[in-house]
Amino acid sequence: MTTLADEIRSRLVVLAPEALDVHDDSAAHAGHAGAAAGGGHFDVLIVSDAFAGLNALARHRKVYALLADLMPHRIHALSLKALTPDEL
């Protein structure tokens, strides 16, 4: 069975990440209104050359565009850190 974290990973590979960590933090939010509706809470770290020359807002928009149809119904909260390899 494919998890939502797996779905997030599979969509973000188009950015050719050097590093990609998707952590499902939903259990820490049990009982929260968003979690009760089936939405998940995720922490994402992605390192990719695709972010070179982009400010933080543009980086987030690039990631959100790939996940747009999952929000807000399946992804309730997304903590995102998007870096270039030089920023590690």
TrEMBL record:
InterPro entries: BolA (IPR002634), BolA-like_sf (IPR036065). Pfam families: BolA (PF01722). Belongs to the BolA/IbaG family. This is BolA family transcriptional regulator. It comes from Jeongeupia chitinilytica.
